[in-house]
């Protein structure tokens, strides 16, 4: 599979919760097999972002000792919490669709620390990050997200 095909799988995860369309998948690079999936479940726990759910599922299912053989695909640039977890795990590469800047322009609440900055401040690892994969399709997820009266796109 190519990056676009994996991102489509992350988009499928995001569509499970259209009001918070943050979906993610983890891929074993050597085989191309999707080993874990996740979507935003922050209504249950504020730390259950799509990336965090996928990372936790991978840990439960595989208990990896070396996370560098995995890549993560996510519909939006990881927030500082998620990118920090990616660094602690040692995931080699992150591919994302929508940028944090776009999310902020759409009035999604974001902590303004870009994923690249978290990577730059992590002296013990260097995750590669590649943005803009199916960016138009990912952006559309966030543009179409329902805008309920109780929040202004609170990314819980």
Secondary structure: elements and pairs:
Blueprint: H1 3-14, E1 23-28, E2 33-39, H2 50-62, E3 70-76, H3 80-89, E4 93-98, H4 100-105, H5 115-120, E5 128-130, H6 135-144
Parallel strand pairs: 3-4, 4-5
Antiparallel strand pairs: 1-2, 1-3
N-to-C order of helices and strands: HEEHEHEHHEH
The pLDDT mean sits at 93
- Rg: 14 Å
Q: Structural class, from secondary structure content?
A: alpha/beta
Characterization of the model:
- This protein is an alpha/beta fold.
- It has six helices and five strands.
- A five-stranded mixed beta sheet has the order 2-1-3-4-5, sandwiched between helices.
- The radius of gyration is 14 Å and the shape is globular.
- It starts with a helix and ends in a 12-residue tail after the last helix.
Task: Record keyword descriptors for this entry.
5 strands; alpha/beta; 5-stranded mixed β-sheet; single chain; 37% helix; 156 residues
Short description:
This protein is of the alpha/beta class and 156 residues long. The chain contains 6 helices and 5 strands; from the N terminus they run αββαβαβααβα.
